[in-house]
């Protein structure tokens, strides 16, 4: 196990700043727009995209203690936390939504977590929903045997993570007018917007249904920075029915984008962002001469739910 002194994130050689790649896409070019891809998916082969930006500061705070975090059966965040644990010699515990999964063979995502040394602790859905309640959390940690652990919330979005994501915005200063980003918890957007320069704006595409995200992002910015920061807005039209819903139209769009540009398109988040940006470009939402950067926050994982639920 690591001690605080030998936790060396730089030894993992993250590719930072992540590459910024201009691509030729006629759906943008014909409107007088430039499209850039901010390749956060290339930061690290296993701590991909916003996972690096959110986890790195949390691992530093954990300082060698067990890291406990939460996720569903296909959570990118659980996989990244497990990989970080293996790479850095930190014990990790994943609290997984769905007691019933405990008796089934692990799906490929959870199997990867387990192979990386993460101890999986399954809880029923009602407990999982109430995990922010301090009594419920204490009980979960007790039964998981992880009372002294550093707790990272579902999706990894706490104040440390949000401050970590500010660097994403800083890397884009002077490079784009509008920065598009897919949102789950909104933590990455909260940090990104805070790091952009005045005059730049962030545009979030929520992948969940619900319309609750603005208030959550305001709360995250309040906790991380003491108040609202940067210019940001959300467009709620591109969730395609909700989390991990990947109807044929979206899948076909993503496949076409991959063929046009040779960039792998993660379906649960990134495909919805790119679809949203292409739609907005077609609607004339961006003035001629605008440079749009799309943040590629993830990479497809084999047999993610998108390939199962179609
Ligand atoms: C690939 C990918 N993109 C975007 C996000 C959204 O990040 P956030 O929860 O900070 O909004 C996630 C969530 O973890 C993700 O896995």
TrEMBL record:
Q: Per its Swiss-Prot or TrEMBL entry, what cofactor is needed?
A: pyridoxal 5'-phosphate
Query: Gene3D superfamilies given for it?
Result: 3.40.50.1100
Q: Which InterPro entries match?
A: ACCD_DCysDesulf, TrpB-like_PALP, TrpB-like_PALP_sf
Record bears the keyword Glycosyltransferase? no
Q: Which Pfam families match?
A: PALP
SUPFAM superfamilies the record matches: Tryptophan synthase beta subunit-like PLP-dependent enzymes (SSF53686)
Q: One GO molecular-function annotation for this sequence? A: D-cysteine desulfhydrase activity
Q: Which residues carry this modification: N6-(pyridoxal phosphate)lysine?
A: 51
Q: Where is the active site?
A: 75 (nucleophile)
GO terms under biological process? alpha-amino acid metabolic process
- Start and end residues of each Tryptophan synthase beta chain-like PALP domain: 19-298
The UniProt keywords, alphabetically, are: Pyridoxal phosphate
Family, per entry:
Belongs to the ACC deaminase/D-cysteine desulfhydrase family.
List the protein's name: Pyridoxal-phosphate dependent enzyme
């Amino acid at each position: 196990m690591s001690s605080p002194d030998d936790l060396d994130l730089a030894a993992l050689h993250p590719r930072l700043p992540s590459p910024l790649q201009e691509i030729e896409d006629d759906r943008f070019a014909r409107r007088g727009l430039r499209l850039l891809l901010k390749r956060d998916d290339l930061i690290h082969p296993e701590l991909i995209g916003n996972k690096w930006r959110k986890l790195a500061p949390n691992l530093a705070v954990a300082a060698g203690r067990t890291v406990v975090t939460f996720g569903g059966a296909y959570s990118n965040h659980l996989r990244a936390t497990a990989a970080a644990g293996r790479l850095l010699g930190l014990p990790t515990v994943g609290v997984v939504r769905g007691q019933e999964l405990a008796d089934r063979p692990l799906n490929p995502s959870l199997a990867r977590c387990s192979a990386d040394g993460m101890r999986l602790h399954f809880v029923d859905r009602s407990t999982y929903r109430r995990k922010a309640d301090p009594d419920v959390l204490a009980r979960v940690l007790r039964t998981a045997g992880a009372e002294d652990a550093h707790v990272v919330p579902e999706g990894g979005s706490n104040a440390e993570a949000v401050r970590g994501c500010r660097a994403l915005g800083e890397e884009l200063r002077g490079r784009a007018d509008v920065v598009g980003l897919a949102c789950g918890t909104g933590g990455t957007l909260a940090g990104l917007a805070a790091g952009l320069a005045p005059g730049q704006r962030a545009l979030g595409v929520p992948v969940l249904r619900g319309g609750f995200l603005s208030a959550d992002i305001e709360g995250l910015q309040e906790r991380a920075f003491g108040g609202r920061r940067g210019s940001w807005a959300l467009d709620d039209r591109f969730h395609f029915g909700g989390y991990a819903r990947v109807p044929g139209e979206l899948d076909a769009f993503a496949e076409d984008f991959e063929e046009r540009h040779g960039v792998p398109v993660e379906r649960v988040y990134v495909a919805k962002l790119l679809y949203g940006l292409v739609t907005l470009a077609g609607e004339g939402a961006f003035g001629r001469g605008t440079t749009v950067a799309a943040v590629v926050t993830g990479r497809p994982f084999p047999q993610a739910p998108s390939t199962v639920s179609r």
